[in-house]
Design goal:
alpha+beta; Beta-Lactamase; Heat Shock Protein 90; 3 domains; about 25% strand
């Protein structure tokens, strides 16, 4: 039903349009003839009247076809009234008589006047510019789509001319990162690159542009707050007729990823270093423990105890990401196996201090040796024995003291074993300080003086 009505309307439009155009053509021919007689007496008035009739007929014929007729009619009336010296030019849409299709028309012309300002004749031309208008519309749609895409992307986006590097487009993220425009040419924008990256970046860009090739590189760009952040910049050429005229570029922030990768590599190197050091420590403990041991079973027990002390110290450092350890926690973990029957046997006091990993491990191993010896021969071997652990900080110097009281009488050992050497030599070396162990009759005292690391 709708198709039938549309078909009859199109046919009716065609018939009416053709009839109106025929009448307009007849009147235009008549006006042309009258213009030829304009020099004769009364001819000018007749020509003026005929031209007016022809114009009205033409406007009436076009009224059913021209979609922008009000604007076009106003333009024609102005030209015949002398506006712009009678010159006119415009573009408008029509509905084609044959099939009702919309077409774009461009018209340009001029109206000529006599000495009294009356219109004598008009010369003009019209041309179908539909294809050009469609191409322009497609170009606008393409540009709008590109801008919408570029603004929606999380990357910085820009377009630059290949000839001089001048930017012809930047998205909002570009402006937000730099805090506004930062120069129209790439050479000016390179000032925002990190000084260490600038020369290589410009060399890569120049070589790629000269060859018309894409390029990609990682550079550090200065943000509006002065911070340099790593970006991965990718640029591809835009060619027309085989000639590269522009480059479109994007830059994505890879700073956090880059920093994470560097930290991961650093951690791997640190892990290798620590594993080697740990193995060397274990090897040293094993050699010193089993060398000259009184018996295998006793040596194995001592070896296991020292490994457990090393393990506990590692636990503390691991929780602190191996950046250091709290001295209170080092002491608490070291004496934990010996305080199971009541922590009142230990009196611990001192300010909050942190030691670096090397010093923390050394002190933990030394405390393990002191506690083991106290459990075998000293204050912890007696139910009445106690151990005081004190430390202070004076002018950057840490004073640490282990004091045993209430145990059996103490006598200096006939020979110094691995435990004593571990306390006096290794601890002093790792803390870069001084360590003194005295075997007083009332109990063993171990005093440490070392600069706070």
């Amino acid at each position: 039903m709708n198709c039938s009505i549309a078909g009859r309307s199109s046919s009716l439009l065609s018939q009416r349009s053709q009839k109106a155009m025929g009448e307009a053509q007849r009147r235009v021919q008549q006006a042309t003839q009258e213009m030829g007689k304009a020099s004769q007496p009364g001819g000018a008035e007749a020509a003026q009247s005929a031209m007016k009739d022809a114009t009205e007929a033409l406007n009436q014929a076009l009224s059913s076809l021209v979609r922008d007729r009000e604007r076009v009619n106003a333009l024609y009336r102005g030209a015949y009234a002398g506006d712009g010296e009678g010159r006119y030019a415009t573009e408008f849409r029509i509905r084609r008589a044959g099939d009702g299709a919309e077409r774009w028309i461009a018209t340009r012309g001029r109206v000529f006047f006599d000495g009294n300002g009356r219109a004598l004749r008009a010369i003009g031309a019209i041309i179908d510019v539909t294809e050009r208008k469609r191409a322009e519309e497609a170009l606008r749609d393409s540009e709008e789509m590109f801008r919408g895409l570029a603004e929606a992307l999380p990357q910085i986006v820009w377009i630059m001319r290949a000839s001089d590097g001048r930017a012809t487009y930047t998205n909002q993220r570009f402006l937000d990162y730099h805090g506004g425009p930062v120069g129209a040419e790439l050479g000016e924008r390179s000032a925002n690159l990190h000084p260490e990256d600038r020369a290589q970046a410009l060399a890569t860009r120049d070589a790629s542009v000269a060859a018309g090739l894409p390029f990609e590189l990682d550079v550090r760009g200065r943000r509006h707050d002065g911070q340099y952040r790593w970006h991965r910049m990718s640029c591809v050429p835009l060619a027309r007729d085989g000639e590269v005229r522009s480059y479109i570029g994007t830059a994505i922030d890879i700073h956090d990823m880059r920093v994470a990768a560097e930290q991961e590599q650093l951690l791997i190197h640190e892990l290798n270093h620590r594993v080697k050091n740990t193995l060397a420590t274990v090897q040293s403990i094993a050699v010193q423990t089993f060398r000259g041991a009184d018996g295998l079973e006793r040596a194995v027990g001592g070896f296991e105890a020292r490994l457990l002390a090393l393990s506990r110290a590692h636990d503390v450092l691991t929780r602190e990401n191996w950046e250091g350890a709290d001295l209170h926690e080092i002491v608490a973990r070291a004496i934990e196996p010996f305080a199971e029957d009541g922590s009142e046997r230990f009196s611990i006091r001192g300010p909050e201090l942190r030691l670096k990993p090397k010093g923390a491990l050394a002190l933990a191993m030394a405390l393990q040796e002191l506690a083991t010896n106290a459990a075998k021969y000293g204050a912890l071997s007696s139910s009445a024995g106690q151990v005081q652990i004190r430390w202070t900080l004076e002018r950057g110097l840490m004073h640490f003291c282990w004091t045993e009281r209430g145990g059996p009488p103490v006598a200096p050992p006939l020979r110094r074993g691995f435990g004593s050497r571990l306390i006096e030599r290794t601890l002093a070396q790792d803390l870069n300080g001084e360590v003194a162990v005295s075997f007083e009759r009332e109990g063993v005292v171990c005093a440490v003086a070392a600069p706070l690391q």
